[in-house]
Design a protein that fits this description.
327 residues; mainly alpha; MetI-like fold; 14 helices; 2 strands
């Protein structure tokens, strides 16, 4: 198990180095950092002195090594737009994005898995047909349209939920959260549903298809022949064997939720990393764009590593390392 984790960790480091090279290339060759940091009145001598001080005249490998070393220490330079350290800007927006993503993932799991189990067991019932129709709508509608429809219904017409912002927030140690206030809880409802709706329908359809496949296997027929109750068959045998693909998809979708929260944060003006990244794109703020790319890659790699480790916990038959460890 330890060897497997070390191998996965080595692969993760390699992936981060490649993504870091892409981020460094973006940082180094898309525009001139000196032009972004000085005005038109700056003399050529002052520009050359600044370029030397920033190390932009060093060989590319030296610059890349310095960039990755700084990134490992969570140092990404100064934002061209805000004139502030990028790490402080990201840390100030990170709690909002993580809270929205976690609430969305919980919503997708708590709703999607029961719906998938029900439609897998009672696939011909009228309620299952309604669930399948809703899932088709959830997959088909684009995220921004879902957000606009929710705003129109619950904010404009019914006046039940706020249409933008994060609501009132409080400091909880080093974390600034809105989940401990009434306005914060109300503000997160519509963005979380908007962001988690696609993941919910995906999980529901995956669980349903896996349940239908498992229920047709021989060991389920043998369990019925032994006289086991339907509850034991469905939840102790069938559902347990559907968890491997569910864990995979859920883990990857959690990374996708964080990475692609940009549209939802824009629609609801949610003050998270996605909105910060969009502002950086509009203003060609390369340090923020590169830092966002590296951070998202790190989160994906971390989630994939956790998912791979969970494989062996859920199903001991899974062999790690590309072969049987017993051999």
């Amino acid at each position: 198990m330890l060897g497997y984790i070390l191998r996965r960790f080595g692969q993760s480091v390699l992936v981060l180095l490649v993504v870091g090279l892409i981020a460094f290339t973006m940082f180094r060759y898309i525009g001139d950092p000196v032009n972004q940091m000085v005005g038109v009145e700056t003399s050529p001598e002052e520009r050359d002195a600044l370029r030397e001080r920033l190390g932009l005249n060093d060989p590319m490998l030296v610059q890349y090594g310095r960039y990755m070393l700084n990134a490992a220490q969570f140092e990404f330079g100064i934002s061209y737009q805000f004139k502030e350290p990028v790490d402080s800007l990201i840390l100030s927006r990170l709690p909002a994005t993580l809270e929205l993503s976690i609430v969305s993932a919980i919503f997708a799991l708590l709703i999607g898995m029961p719906m998938g189990v029900y439609t897998g067991i009672y696939r011909d019932s009228w309620l299952s047909q309604i669930f399948m129709t809703l899932s088709l709508i959830g997959i088909s509608l684009p995220t921004f349209l879902v957000g606009i429809l929710l705003i129109f219904l619950f904010a404009v017409n019914l006046h039940l939920l706020p249409s933008f912002g994060r609501g009132e927030t409080v400091d909880f140690g080093f974390w600034r959260t809105g989940l401990l206030t009434t306005s914060g809880l109300l503000a997160v409802i519509m963005p979380a549903i908007t962001l988690g709706l696609f993941q919910m329908t995906l999980i529901m359809r995956l669980v349903r298809s896996e349940m239908l496949e498992v229920l047709r296997t021989d060991y389920i027929k043998f369990a019925r022949a032994r006289g086991l109750t339907s509850r034991a068959i469905y939840f102790s045998h069938a559902l347990k064997n559907t968890l491997i693909p569910v864990i995979t998809i859920t883990g990857l979708q959690l990374g996708s939720i964080i990475a692609f929260a940009i549209i939802t944060e824009t629609v609801f003006q949610w003050p998270g990393m996605g909105l910060l990244f969009l502002q950086a794109v509009q203003n060609v703020d390369i340090p923020i764009m590169a830092a966002y790319l590296l951070l998202i890659a790190f989160l994906f790699v971390l989630i994939n590593l956790i998912v791979d480790i969970l494989y062996t916990v859920v199903d001991p038959r899974v062999r790690v390392g590309g072969g049987s460890e017993a051999g």
